[in-house]
Amino acid sequence: MATIVGSVKPPPFDYVRAANLDDVWDALDADEDAKVIAGGQSLIPLLSLRFASPSLLVDLGALGELTGVQLTDSVLRIGALTRHCEVERNAAIRAAAPLLAEAATWVAHPQIRNRGTLGGSVAHGDSAAEFPAALLALDATMVARSRAGERRVAATDFFLSYFTTALEPGEILAAVELPVARSSSTWGFAEFARRRGDYAIGGAAVQAERDADGSCRSVRAGLLAAGPAPCLAPGLADAFAGRVVDRQLIAGVVDEALARLAPGENVHGSAGYRKDVIGEMLRRALASAFELGEVA
Ligand SMILES: Cc1cc2nc3c(=O)[nH]c(=O)nc-3n(C[C@H](O)[C@H](O)[C@H](O)COP(=O)(O)OP(=O)(O)OC[C@H]3O[C@@H](n4cnc5c(N)ncnc54)[C@H](O)[C@@H]3O)c2cc1C
User: What residue stretches are annotated with the FAD-binding PCMH-type domain (predicted)?
Assistant: First the structure.
C-alpha cells in the first residue's frame, strides 16, 4: 500500500487498488475512514476542495465483477463501473433504456464522461445529477453488495438526503437493474443549465407507458435539482392514469406537483426561479414523452 502525501491540494491519504472484492471488504473493515473510488470525477474534486478527507482510497477500477451490461427478456443489468460514455453508446442500453442513454449525453463534458461511472454517480447521490433522475423514472433497482452478499433497493428508497444514499457501511453499489422498455414505452428528457455540460439548474426525466387507444397506463418523472435528494415528481401517476394526455392536462398536473416541491435558493437563483425552471422542464419532458411536439 503506497502513501501519497498531499503535496498538491488533497489531504494525505493511503491508496490501494483492489484486485478482487475480498480486498475491498478487508480494506473497508480495517479502516472506517476508507472510501471507495471509481472514476474519481466527483471524489477527487471533493478531496481537492478538502470537503472530504478519507484516510484510505480503495480503487474499484480493476474489479471485473462490477462491469458489463447484461440484457434478458425483462431486465437490463448495468455494472456499476460502466462509464458514462458507454451508457451513452452501448447498443443494449440504447434499445432497452433509451431514457438512460439520453440522460448520459447531458452529464458534464466528454472528458468527464470518459472517466465517470454510472455507479459513482448513483452512489454520490447529487440531486442535480442526470442518472439518479432517469433511474427513478425508470423504476430501477440498485444492487448493493457487501461481504454478506447482494441486497436490492428500489430507486425510490435509495436516495435519502443531501449526498446520502441507502448504502450502508461496508457496502458498495455493484449494479443497477432496469425493466426493459416495451413497444408501448415512451420517454422525454429536458434540462436547463447555464451552459451545456454544467450541472442542471432544473430538469426532468420522464418514462411513460401508453395503451393502444393512447391513454396513459403509467408515468414517472424523476426531477433534477428539485430538493435535497433526487426525487420523483409527486402526483403524476394518479392524475394521468387512464387519460389521454394533452397540454392542458400536463399544465394542471405540473402546477399541482410544483405546489408540493420546495427547491431551495442557491447560487443559481432564488427558490421561486428554480421552481419555475423545474416546472418548465417537467412540462417539456412530459410533452416529449406523450409526443405532443415541441414546446414554444
Ligand atoms: C467539471 C465537472 C462537471 C460535472 N458535471 C456533472 C453533471 O453535469 N452531471 C452529473 O451528474 N455529474 C457531473 N459531474 C460528476 C461526474 O458525473 C462523476 O463522474 C460522477 O458524479 C461520479 O462518478 P465517478 O465514477 O467519477 O465517482 P467517484 O468520483 O469515484 O466517486 C463518487 C462517490 O461515489 C462513491 N462511489 C463510487 N463508486 C462507488 C460504488 N460502486 N459503490 C459505492 N460507492 C461508490 C465514492 O466513494 C464517492 O463518494 C461533473 C464532474 C466534474 C468534474
Answer: 8-183
